[in-house]
Amino acid sequence: MLTLNAAATSAASLPSAAEDAGAVESTATYCFSVSARRDVGVLPRLVGFFAKRDLIPTRLHLADEGDDTLSIDLQLPALDQPLAHLIAANFRQIIGVQTVLVSAKT
Questions:
Q1: Three-state DSSP class for residue 79
Q2: Could you give the C-alpha distances from 19 to 13, 29, 83, 103, in angstroms and in order?
């Protein structure tokens, strides 16, 4: 949240819309929704990816969909968009992963 004192702030010191959007993007929480085969090795591979990069997901939810499919949702705070898309691309290369969706929330 940006608080301004009208008397002390000039138009030149206000952040531009692009700068403000960049600030929001760099502090966004990225949500990854992964659909994978029901295999005991899938979850350790996903979590291992974070461990290698010293990242800790703030949320992790796993559901057995009953049709030999796992639904895994993970959230990571304070990522930038290129890193989030790199993570999604790496998830897609994991054996057993069928689909990966990524979205951002502020």
A1: strand
A2: 12, 18, 19, 21
Domains in the chain and their CATH numbers? 25-105 (3.30.70.260)
Q: What is the pTM of this model?
A: 0.72
Phi then psi for residue 29, to 5 deg, are -95, 125
User: Which candidate, 44, 40, 33, 30, places its Cα nearest to that of 98?
Assistant: 33
- Give the closest residue to 105 by CA, choosing from 16, 14, 33: 33
Instruction: Dump the DSSP string for 20-66.
Output: HHHHHHHTEEEEEEEEEES-TTHHHHHHHHHHHTT---SEEEEEE-S
> Shortest CA distance to 74 belongs to which of 86, 89, 91?
91
Cβ atoms within 10 Å of 56's Cβ, excluding its own: 11
| Residue 10 neighbours by CB distance under 10 Å | 6
pLDDT single digits (tens) 18-41: 444 444 455 799 999 999 999 989
